[in-house]
Amino acid sequence: MLRTALLNPYKLSKTLIQNTRLASKTSPWKISQTHLNIHSSAISLHPRSRKGGGAGDESSGGSSSGNNQDDGNGSDGGNKNYPPPPPMFATSKHPETSSFNALAQINVPENYPTVPVIPLYRNPVFPKFVKLVEISNQWLMDLLRKNQKLAQPYAGAFLRKDESDSDVIKSLDEIYHTGTFVQITEMHDTGDKIRMIINGHRRISVTGVASIENESESDPAEDLFDKSEFVTTSEKDEGFVEEEICKKHENEAEMNGSEAVSEEKPILMVNVENVVDEKYQQDQELKAASAEVIKTIRDIIAMNPLYKESLSQLIEAGKRVVDNPTHLADFGAALTSADAAQLQEVLEEIEIPKRLMLTLELLKKELAIIMLQQRLGKEVEEKVNKMQRKYLLQEQLKIIKKELGLEKEDKDTVIEKFRSRLEPLTVPEKVNEVIEEEINKLSFLDNHSSEFSVTRNYLDWLTSLPWGLNSEDLLDLKRAREILDEDHYGLDDIKNRVLEFIAVGMLSKNIRGKILCFTGPPGVGKTSIGKSIARSLNREYFRFSVGGMTDVAEIKGHRRTYVGAMPGKIIQCLKKTKTENPLILIDEVDKIGRGHQGDPSSALLELLDPEQNVNFLDHYLDVPVDLSKVLFICTANTQETIPGPLRDRMEMINVSGYVEDEKIGIAKQYLIPQAQQNAGMDDQMIDLSEDSVLNLIKMYCRESGVRNLQKHIEKIFRKGALKYVMNENEKVFVTPDNLKDFVGNPVFNAEKMYDNTPPGVSVGLAWTSMGGSTLFIETAIVAKSQENKDDGSRGRLETTGQLGDVMKESCRIAYTFSKSFLLQQDCSNDFFDNNSVHLHVPEGATPKDGPSAGSTIITAFLSLAMNQPIKQHLAMTGEVSLTGKILPVGGIKEKLIAARRSGMKTVLLPEGNRKDYNDLQDFIKNGLDVRFMNDYNDVFREAFQS
């Protein structure tokens, strides 16, 4: 067959193709070296071949190029001669020839006008460089397979303009028009994709799209021989026409049941032309730029070992590449990790000096990035090495100390620490058994186990509690009284209760803990006096608030098996105070919450019960703790919101609000000196008159407590300090006239709404958690409409003013009683039968409730019915029954304070509150004519004396 092929060129080409197919069955993507040698030998005999490849050629297989196209030269050897991946920078003795180890030397065509398009992304491929490419475009894959069979391993590699990694190109606008003429040196086909190594040879530029249909009508043999001398039979030849590509896709479409291929056929072939670099002169500037590029490349390679292989290949290439600015620019650009657009700019540049400068710019940026990476890496490495060195030294130190007997193992040290804690303590027997059992358990556990950590924490809490340790109470009545009066003004009930506690302890020699509860409005000193009590008794002080608490574990602790478990607040208090008899202040017990995690108020029942807290059991410790010596003090604003069982366990002490005289005393003794000291001023710098303080209390700070008064006084001294500095140390005077310059306009107006109360209006007294206030009751006749007059309906009662349910019931009781009482006084008065009455309580935005306004409402009804005003400057309070009995009410002190503040002179109180009135201080009673009533007849006589 070989002899026949040598005599008949057409039979030669057909023989080559058949051999190629036979070879491809064993290795589809590799053309054997034997076929290449036969092919090149046969071509060398043809008289029109441009380059001989006969026996006299240096290579094992020559090359011939007809019609400016390469014919079968780009193939690899067989399996045994399959070359390794080509080096990064390919070199050869001839500019147009690529040579690799174990590869036959192939002459690359100087002109190749039509090439398949291989789209690239991320970065282009430069001449003399190789790149691994993966494609999955079936059209392109079929074309490359066909070219590989025809020994035409050439293509054009062009960079995509977008960041897509798709290898389908539908328009030339998707790629840069300047690319690289590449040779496929290795191909691996998996069926659905092809992975190949391409070797760049020269720059090319796209001139247009090539038509693939025209090529399909030509025989591959025509690429080897001239059409004028050889007859083509491509229509009859069945192996290598490109129509098979189209037929393949059409058959696949018919097999899939699709009507036609709807997608447009992508661009597979383009017409190209070589890009010729402009001529340049090897002047000094170009040599300097080349030297700088070489220096920068060396710096990069010295700092990054990844480029050492490229450097070794550069050395193997000899000085030719280094001395050639064209190759040097490409080599430098390929080393960088620059953006695709910047690398494409280098590829498109045809002026060698400019290309070299672009490469130098990219190399400098790359060097700066590598230097930054090296600095950051060095810092991190130094930090890690320092930590490792410290760890190694610590471990060595432990071993040395252990060998010298200076330090025991961690486990022994922990156990010894726990036992040393127990020496000064008097631990109960049951608790001591638990501690010994846990220590024995700890000794058998591994230091790194989770159980070891849990057991160690448990023992740490058990041994940290003050078992048997108590602070000595200083039972000195005189000293205690001085300390209490030093810190707080008034609060005699609380102070007397503390003195009683001390006196009992002095006589009985056995002081047991008590549970007290201070109730009163905010800002009266309930919380702060707890610390003074602890100081007067020489006890440790601990405070925690239960306002809004919804988790019972805050009181009784978590189970020990939970992650992050810890004891409750009481056990934490004992550990912190280091005594068994501290003073524990539980703040805001009236605002305790309830949630899905339990009811903390129920947990306080055991804590605050003197019979149960002897053996208080915390969930975490799970051993009984004696709390009988603890003095518990609770604070609340109101008693009504405290649960009944909890309220029953506490001794309630009411803390009333302060009157004006008390507030003035507190301001003089405590608030003004403290604010003056905090502002850095003295009496020579500012003068705050007593009238200003009184005006401040009346018009700005009318609440029962003094917290707001303290804020306003501090504000006055801050403003005074500013004026003193701005006026060059001129003394500042604060008077009632300029008080608003320091604290602004008054907040409260005169509480008295009427100078003279008209008929239908009466004055009552109310009491809230904020203190007492006056409460005006207004009544008026509702005019009847014509319809109501015609139907003869009787009078009705309407109420407004945001009244609560209890107060609405009081209104109905008062309305019914007023009707009967009016008939007793004047049987001819049919006011309530013929008129509807509207009752209103001013300040409608404020909710109002309670039964204490019963006598006031009746008085307003009767005043309206008789058209007679009540006695001026008269206020009253008291619940009225349906039969007219006056029942006692609460908040007598606050109500009398409010009456004095509003300018009332006569106050009517229930007889049942006489005892409360007798307990009040004289300065509260002064200026008030208080009279006590048993039933409403007494109220009527006082209110309507005329």
UniProtKB/TrEMBL annotation:
PROSITE patterns: LON_N (PS51787), LON_PROTEOLYTIC (PS51786). Residues 57-72 have a biased composition (Low complexity). Its EC number is 3.4.21.53. SUPFAM superfamilies: P-loop containing nucleoside triphosphate hydrolases (SSF52540), PUA domain-like (SSF88697), Ribosomal protein S5 domain 2-like (SSF54211). It comes from Clytia hemisphaerica. InterPro entries: AAA+_ATPase, ATPase_AAA_core, Lon_bac/euk-typ, Lon_lid, Lon_proteolytic, Lon_Prtase, Lon_prtase_N, Lon_prtase_N_sf. The active site is at 852, 895. Coiled coil: none annotated. Belongs to the peptidase S16 family. Residues 115-367 form the Lon N-terminal domain. Keywords: ATP-binding, DNA-binding, Hydrolase, Mitochondrion, Nucleotide-binding, Protease, Serine protease, Transit peptide. ATP binds at residues 520-527. Homohexamer or homoheptamer. Organized in a ring with a central cavity. Residues 41-96 are annotated as: Disordered. GO terms for cellular component: mitochondrial matrix. The keyword Oxidoreductase does not apply. It comes from the Eukaryota. Residues 756-946 form the Lon proteolytic domain. ATP-dependent serine protease that mediates the selective degradation of misfolded, unassembled or oxidatively damaged polypeptides as well as certain short-lived regulatory proteins in the mitochondrial matrix. May also have a chaperone function in the assembly of inner membrane protein complexes. Participates in the regulation of mitochondrial gene expression and in the maintenance of the integrity of the mitochondrial genome. Binds to mitochondrial DNA in a site-specific manner. This is Lon protease homolog, mitochondrial. It is found in: Mitochondrion matrix. Its main location: mitochondrion. It catalyses: Hydrolysis of proteins in presence of ATP. One of its GO terms (biological process) is chaperone-mediated protein complex assembly.
